[in-house]
Design brief:
There is one protein chain. This protein has 4 domains: 6-147 and 258-327 and 592-652, no CATH class; 156-251, Calcium-transporting ATPase, cytoplasmic transduction domain A (Distorted Sandwich); 333-360 and 475-586, 3-Layer(aba) Sandwich (Rossmann fold), CATH 3.40.50; 362-474, 3-Layer(aba) Sandwich (Calcium-transporting ATPase, cytoplasmic domain N), CATH 3.40.1110. The chain contains 24 helices and 22 strands. The chain has a 7-stranded mixed β-sheet, sandwiched between helices.
Length: 655
């Protein structure tokens, strides 16, 4: 029932909050209890139980009136719809509930009317409250996610003011404030390190499992954990501009999106409002003035049309599915920001993966060591590892780990220097050595070996190239399964990477990927996606880094993996909270099941009204069939229950 659009959608401000599921549930249970005596005083039930007392109709009137008070919230929403000139579900619900209740009241005081709808109207209100509860529950899922995100932040920060350290509330932090963060503490806001260095654990925010070394000039994200050093941070962003603020904004936006089929249901409800009122008036006129039946008979038919046409099955058809979808998705680490993408995801025929950190671990391992000048492998490894001991780069750590595993001794170094973007240099026993990429080697005019696949680290002294170490980024175990599963579903797989042709070819071959694009500049990734789309493909792109943002936006569906960076999260329609490519398969499977349920529910809800409304208007009278108000209301309630039960079957879906 995400059907209170525009102003009507503002019902947070109107008495009951959208996420106020408890309030709806409380009303629902009170009405449930009130329904028991109301059922017991029904003439048929009273007769069966052999209870008979004169006050029956007055007890019905009293109980139904109390229940009616609980339905006034629907009239409030209908008022917003009418004001916004968006006549939808609530308008029709209010007409049905209001006309049925008033007709019953008149019938109580004017015995000639003979028909009362108290039980039908009360049951209808009961079903509506359940529907509202389900919808509000969907809203509260976003609220739960918001609370989880808020927990990532510390409560206090240590601000440096006039050289002194003072403790302040995190809410009082301003841009350009300087805070000190000690080992084990959480970073209170996005900022830049102006003093000190440390390893930072950003896994809770970015899904990146390995700690990242950061020093002066390095940017840090609120909520990440300072592992070992003492750092001073200058605050760059606070509140809603911070990374966590951006994620919170996404969660709120997700709660406001609707699938396209929900928009169809909303539109159908609006049209149904006018059709129903028209048919009710038409039935009254035809039966009274054309066929010549009594006014009471004709009015009873008209009211029956209004009562049973209540489009609640239509209103619940999609929200019950989306509520359950949101909860299944969150439990599986899928954060669907835009529910309208569900319909598109199930049509995907090509999935494009970014390579590093998505299909691969983003962790490097030594594959091969090549030496020149009669150098032994261990000697080359000794030089490389000794120099890399002072480096903070992940490739340096990989070489150091490999050397330790091979029990290579690490030498003392002096005059260590980091050469930005190239490598490192230092002296061992008075001899200067260089360890780095091809840029550092080109400086010395050394010839670079051709056709090497992988990431190369060269080792040299001032006069000679001593050898090189080949490292490779290992493929994630689940990447193999992911490609296999996508192929089983008839979906092609492509890979985009900034790495060279050799690396791309090797990874593609191992994973059995259909096509790959290598040596691509980050800013050009989106062009390749556009080209593929122009060939008629519906493309789902999976990426993580800042440079993937334009590509994620260009794709039909952008999926940010590992909750990447704030920009990638901003650009993706879906965020995979775990750094697992197999979640893409889960996402597509879930979307197919969800879409199927949406269509089933829409067909059922619309089909019920197409048959029930003409029946209530007496169109089958010539066959001696009239749909009585009681039966009509029962079928209406039943159709709603069927829609909800059908949606609940989603919970049994294995993805």
């Amino acid at each position: 029932m995400t059907h209170h659009h525009s102003k009507a959608n503002n019902h947070q401000n109107h008495g009951m909050g959208h996420g106020d599921a408890r309030n709806y549930l409380k009303r629902f249970w009170i009405v449930t209890i009130l329904l028991i005596p109301l059922v017991l005083v029904q003439p048929q039930v009273a007769e069966f139980l052999n209870i008979s007392f004169e006050l029956n109709k007055w007890i019905q009137f009293g109980i139904a009136t109390i229940i009616f008070v609980f339905a006034l919230i629907f009239f409030q929403h209908a008022g917003h719809e009418i004001k916004a000139k968006k006549y939808g579900m609530m308008t029709l619900v209010s007409i049905a509930v209001g006309s049925g209740y008033l007709f019953s009241v008149f019938s109580t005081f004017l015995p000639s009317l003979k028909v009362e709808f108290y039980l039908e109207i009360s049951t209808l209100i009961w079903v509506l409250l359940l529907g509202h509860y389900l919808e509000a529950k969907s809203g509260s899922l976003a609220g739960n996610a918001l609370q989880e995100i808020a927990k990532l932040l510390p409560k206090k920060a240590h601000k440096i003011e006039k050289g002194k350290e003072i403790e302040i509330e995190i809410m009082d932090l301003k841009v350009d404030d300087v805070v000190i963060v000690k080992p084990g503490e959480k970073i209170p806001a996005d900022g830049i390190i102006i003093k000190g260095f440390s390893n930072i654990d950003e896994s809770l925010i970015s899904g990146e499992s390995k700690p990242i070394y950061k020093e002066k000039g390095g940017q840090v994200i609120a909520g990440s954990i300072n592992l070992d050093g003492v750092i001073n941070i200058k605050i760059l962003r606070t509140g809603e501009n911070s990374t966590i603020g951006q994620i919170q904004k996404l969660i709120i936006e997700a709660g406001q999106t609707k699938p396209n089929s929900q928009k169809i249901a909303d539109k159908a409800a609006g049209i149904l409002t006018f059709i129903t009122v028209f048919i009710a008036i038409l039935a009254l006129f035809i039966w009274k003035f054309w066929i010549g039946e009594s006014f009471v008979f004709s009015l009873t038919l008209a009211i029956t049309v209004l009562v049973i046409s209540c489009p609640h099955a239509l209103g619940l058809a999609i929200p019950t599915v989306t509520t359950i979808t949101t909860s299944i998705a969150v439990k599986n680490g899928l954060f669907i920001k835009d529910l309208s993408k569900i319909e598109e995801i199930q049509k995907v025929d090509l999935v494009i993966f970014d390579k590093t950190g998505t299909l691969t671990e983003g962790k490097f391992k030594v594959n091969k060591i090549v030496t020149f000048e009669k150098f032994k492998e261990k000697e080359l490894l000794n030089i490389a590892a000794s120099l890399e001991k002072g480096s903070s780069h992940i490739i340096g750590h990989a070489i150091l780990d490999y050397a330790k595993s091979k029990k290579v001794k690490i030498s003392e170094i002096s005059n260590f220097r980091n050469i930005a973007g190239q490598g490192v240099k230092a002296k061992i026993n008075g001899i200067e050595y260089f360890v780095g990429n091809e840029k550092i080697i080109k400086k010395f005019g050394f010839e670079i070996p051709k056709n090497i696949s992988g990431t190369i680290v060269f080792v040299a002294n001032k006069a000679t190239l001593l050898g090189y170490i080949i490292l490779a980024d290992s493929i994630k175990e689940n990447s193999f399964k992911t490609v296999k599963e996508l192929h089983k579903m008839g979906i092609n797989v492509a890979m985009l990477t900034g790495d060279n042709q050799n690396v791309a070819r090797e990874v593609s071959k191992k994973l059995n990927i259909d096509q790959y694009f290598a040596d691509i500049l980050p800013e050009d990734k989106y062009k390749y996606i556009r080209e593929i789309q122009n060939q008629g493909n519906i493309v789902l792109m999976v990426g993580d880094g800042v440079n993937d943002a334009p590509a994620l936006i260009q794709a039909n569906i952008g999926v940010a993996i590992g909750a990447g960076t704030d920009i990638a999260v901003e650009s993706g329609d879906i965020v995979l909270m775990n750094n697992d490519p197999l979640d893409v398969v889960k996402l597509i499977k879930l979307s197919k099941k969800v879409y199927q349920k949406m269509i089933e529910n829409l067909i059922w809800a619309l089909g019920y009204n197409i048959i029930a409304i003409p029946s209530a208007a007496g169109i089958f009278a010539s066959f001696g069939f009239f749909l009585s108000p009681e039966v009509g209301a029962l079928i209406m309630s039943l159709s709603t229950v069927i829609v909800v039960i059908n949606a609940l079957f989603l919970k049994r879906v294995k993805i």
